[in-house]
Request: fold
Amino acid sequence: MYRARLGKNLEKVTLDYVSSIDDDVEIAHYDILGSQAHAIMLYENKILTKNEIKKILKGLESLKKVKLTKKTDSEDIHELIESLVIKKIGIDVGGKMHTARSRNDQVALDIRMKIRDDINIVCQCLLDTIKALVVLAKKHQDTIVPLYTHLQQAQVGLFSHYLLSYADALFRDLDRLYVTYGRVNENPLGAGPIGGTSIPIDRLSTGKMLGLKGVVENSIDATTTRDSAVEYIAAIAILMTNLSRVSKDFSIWSTSEFSFLELSDEFTSPSSVMPQKKNPDILELTRGKTSHVIGNLTSMLSTIQGLPSGYSRDLQQINPAIWSASKVVISALLIMESMLKTVVINKKNMKRAAEDGHLIALDLAEKLVHNDIPFRKAHQIIGRIVKLAHISGKPISKLSESEVKKVVKNKEVSLKLLMKLIRSTTLTSSLHERKSQGSSGISEQKRMTAHRMKKIEKYQTGVKTRSDAVQYSLNQLDKKVKKLTR
Ligand code: ARG
Reply:
């Protein structure tokens, strides 16, 4: 449709090469809505007549029901939609719908509308996943687990503490997306190909009809820049790394060596040969798909960094990277949520593992600190006691006074006090006594769980308000379309 200056049509292989039609399916709907809002703005500013707007809107409306497939000579969805409208209502009127815009601002708009919806969906899925974590945490506020650093047992903790650590990370992911939304939800349309237009358009009004807040003002920026799309994918990539790490933990903990938990059958796969197998394939795929999303981010950044100012066709290449990242993260979150709701936690094994590892060592050292022994000295004393326990193959609490006496140097600590502490310190007492903010302490866990639950509700309202606002604007647009096509 655009090739008057060029004469010859594209060869089939070249058309396939340049075409974005397959990827554009994801934005077809937004392109129609954007075109309707743009046309109404042209009409309201007396650039189109009543009869013209009626025909154009009708033409566009009829395309909402059509499956826009690949069998076309058009290079992309923008060309296809315009050509179909022209085919339907003729070039005299249909030929006016592309007044005062370009495919460059058009595609920038479509991407923003698509990401806007995706962010709202991802935020909702995130909230559901966070809720699943917090609900599970509530059930496990007294479930004892070893906490690991370097994959070595470090301190005794509570399983709720672990779960809430990921709830908090996901809250930050949510917050990142929440903020990015504001930068995405702006109108680039009306920027033209790069430098604006002489036609008296009203960019704010087009944006308003589409529920966008304000315009991306500078027309060069509006058509060229994809930083907010990259920001979105960066947030998704970070979020995926969090899901990937939970997946890693859960697949390790589901091994027979750990047996901390059992994944529900629907989140595991069998082996084609070994009948006993229950493999955590789904979690492994979340890990694998995280790499894929990181690849999407990298490919976007490397495409953009090499571009001169103004639209270049390279930009078309980044769109499928956006769509696929959205798809991956939404399913990863849905799966994570259901997995958390169905996983069976083996409290006994978690506790048994914690009992094996002399995990009260630091708690004991801190008790000496409470008794006025400098921490470094306390660390040395308890270090020797742990070594003794390790060699004699007993838990610290079962060491006899005469054994302990051998490793305690004269006067560094009263043997009586030390024995009293050794006898009275247990995993549970340690968790009762741990009080610092954000710790595994039992009281902290209760407070944090309740607090995070409330936090979910607050965000829930925010996300709903946003989705409702978009829906409201689009409903208003629909009403206008209906009125003008009557
Ligand atoms: N399909 C193109 C894309 O996704 C639309 C913009 C084309 N603009 C152009 N000047 N060739 O980026």
About this structure: The two ends are 30 Å apart (CA to CA).
